[in-house]
Amino acid sequence: MATFGFIGVGNMGGALARAAARSEGGEKLMVSSRTRSRAEALAQELRCRAVSNEEIASQADFIFLGVKPQMLGSLLAGLAPILRARIDRFVLVSMAAGTPIAKIQALLGMECPVIRIMPNTPVSVGEGIILHACSGEVTENERNMLIGSLREAGMLIALPENQIDAGSTVSACAPAFADLFMEALADGGVACGLPRAAAMEMAAQMLVGSGKLLLASGRHPGELKDAVCSPGGTTIQGVRKLEQSGFRGAVLEAVIAAFEKNREFAK
Fold first, then answer.
1. Contact (CB, 8 A) for 19 and 123
2. pTM, to two decimals
3. Reading across the β-sheet that carries 49-50, which strands appear in turn?
4. Which residues contact residue 130 at a Cβ distance below 8 angstroms, ignoring those fewer than 6 apart?
5. pLDDT of residue 1
């Protein structure tokens, strides 16, 4: 029976721990945090154990590293002696943005199994995306165990590691872009006379429904857009204004800017 340890249970680490608890049960989980009270509160919620980083490093089969890239080096420096002393098998699961597997192994001074994941915020409601790439030391069974443990978080997509940074700009950064879009749609609705709560609900459900329609139909988004734009109608006038304002170009530039920042972390 595999055990799962989560080092760092902030927004993202906590969301993944909750998904793992729904998939595997709290008895298989351990959690730790710089703030002990946060770990204890989550442990009580999930009916799992709040422990130290060192206990997770020495005991867990899957060790999730839920810290920011800037903190990863110091964390691994403290865990390295414990991990190198282990005689049983373990897998590191890193969610540090822009930090390649080779860098993690170099910081540890050992070629242990590493799975690099990039989740997005909707994992907290079971509708997320988790991109993942595995080092050569990871077995297919271990990869499948990870996928099974996070199945309640949403969709898991395997990518070659050299595409993770690009993929994460679309899946992990873009929820912020979508939030801006929803806020702007709601503001427009308010300007036209809608109550704000109703406008926000419509904007949010529109994005949910549009995404599901694209996935279910397999149709190109341009084709779906054309289906809404009747000749001489209202929608095409809105599309015209978006194009005049450089909407698609602005989105392209946002994705590229996020990608380039991601690449800086790998240097």
1. yes
2. 0.90
3. 49-50, 29-32, 4-7, 62-65, 91-94, 114-119, 128-134, 154-158
4. 117, 118, 119, 120, 123, 150, 153, 154, 155, 156, 157
5. 79
